[in-house]
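Progress note, sequence design subtask.
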């Protein structure tokens, strides 16, 4: 066990966790909703510090981050556990592991030094805290991010956006990019399907932007659940008005998974409709994911519409931007982290 951050002690040896927006009040000997933070003796501890369940070298485009060191590799890690319980979770085997296996916490022992060394040896430009929600292994992510930043590596979260502002404040000096799953624009969806709330995610997104962290958004479009054109339009307007038209929006194709096996694969027409809705609302960069070979996986200059980054799946075929992200055709400097 490792001492947790961001908790307060209450009466009767209870503790209140302030790491995510569940703000769990945890009795003695019990765990929070995430299943990996436990009250021992009236103090909160992380059960997953350095217990890595997944460790891979991925293209940064797989996160997906398309405007963050394109074409580079990212050392990607996760522990078990999650603070959401999405019925459609694509990585439920590890995110829901403590719930599925009576609180068991598997993983290989790793130190922050091990992770940073692994990233450097494999030629990665960044470390991604991904696969499951990085907030739930926050203490390990924070220690690793500090060390990584001191050695010239970037740090990336792939997140559900349910962390508190206090958590963002602790890591914002070391966190350079984040992709947040904006799963729906309806409270009912979050409550029913994710066992969470929408409003904290929206507030976190706005705060991340104000903190100067590079933000990209992913929405997994599920037939009959979050594919209504009016909802997608509201989402696109929120992204433009609150985060900026330059914020990339990844529209991802749903495949049946976990407890949502009764839903069909998202029709390509639905994804295309969402794409055009986003364009109508003024978003510069919209990408359709999980559909290999479509024209929207490329990046186009928002000023002259020139093709500046050509992709095939998660790989860069051609990148015409200069080191500062400037378009070679008109000079417009595209938004992102290019160096």
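Output:
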């Amino acid at each position: 066990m490792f001492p947790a951050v961001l908790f307060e002690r209450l009466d009767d040896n209870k503790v209140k966790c302030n790491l995510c927006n569940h703000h769990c009040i945890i009795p003695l000997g019990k765990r929070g909703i995430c299943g990996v933070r436990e009250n021992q003796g009236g103090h909160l501890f992380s059960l997953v510090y350095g217990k890595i369940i997944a460790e891979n070298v991925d293209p940064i485009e797989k996160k997906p981050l398309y405007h963050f060191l394109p074409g580079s590799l990212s050392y990607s890690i996760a522990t078990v556990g999650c603070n959401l319980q999405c019925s459609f979770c694509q990585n439920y085997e590890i995110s829901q592991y403590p719930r599925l296996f009576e609180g068991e916490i598997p993983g290989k022992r790793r130190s922050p030094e091990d992770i940073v060394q692994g990233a450097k040896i494999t030629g990665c430009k960044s470390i991604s805290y991904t696969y499951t929600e990085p907030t739930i292994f926050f203490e390990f992510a924070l220690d690793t991010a500090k060390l990584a930043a001191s050695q010239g590596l970037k740090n990336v979260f792939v997140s559900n956006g349910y962390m508190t502002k206090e958590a963002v404040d602790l890591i914002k000096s070391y966190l350079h990019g984040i992709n947040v799953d904006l799963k729906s624009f309806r409270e009912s969806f979050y409550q029913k399907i994710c066992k969470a709330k929408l409003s904290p995610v929206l507030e976190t997104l706005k705060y991340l932007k104000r903190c100067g962290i590079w933000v990209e958004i992913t929405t997994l479009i599920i037939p009959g659940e979050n594919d209504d054109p009016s909802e997608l339009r509201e989402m696109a307007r929120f992204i433009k008005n609150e985060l900026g038209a330059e914020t990339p929006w990844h529209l991802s194709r749903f495949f049946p998974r976990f407890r949502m096996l009764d839903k069909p694969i998202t029709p390509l027409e639905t994804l295309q409709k969402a794409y055009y809705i986003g364009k109508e609302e003024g978003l510069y960069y919209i990408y359709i994911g999980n559909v290999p070979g479509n024209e929207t996986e490329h990046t186009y200059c928002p000023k002259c519409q020139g093709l500046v980054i050509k992709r095939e799946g998660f790989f860069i075929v051609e990148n015409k931007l200069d080191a500062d992200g400037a378009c070679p055709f008109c000079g417009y400097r595209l938004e992102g982290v290019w160096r």
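The mean pLDDT is 97. Work on this subtask will continue into the next period as scheduled.
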